[in-house]
Amino acid sequence: MSEKRKYRQFTPEQKTEVVLAGLRGDRSVRDVCREYEISETLYYSWRDKLLEGGKAALASSNARTPEHVEVVELKKKVAALERSLGRKTYELEIAGALSRDWT
């Protein structure tokens, strides 16, 4: 029978602490990894994710991410549908008024 391996779970705060400890430069990355008992590969993976998140957060507001483009397109579509609904509502009100006057 094989035992199921149990992995440790790190919070985002713990991951950030580990990465910052390695980035400070007062100790080597190898020493930081030994202290926290993680592999260097895992450390570099966390570091890359942290730096990518930082880049995204510091990107100019004019940067057009795919999500931003999608939100803008959806807002345009909602506005067009609202205008269309408004026109149809107005047409129904006119038709109702005309039918009341006709009878």
Automatic annotation (TrEMBL):
Q: SUPFAM superfamilies in the record, alphabetically?
A: TrpR-like
What is this protein's name?
Answer: Transposase
Q: Mention one GO molecular function.
A: transposase activity
Q: Tell me the GO BP annotations in alphabetical order.
A: DNA transposition
Name the Pfam families for this protein: HTH_Tnp_1
Domain of life from the UniProt record: Bacteria
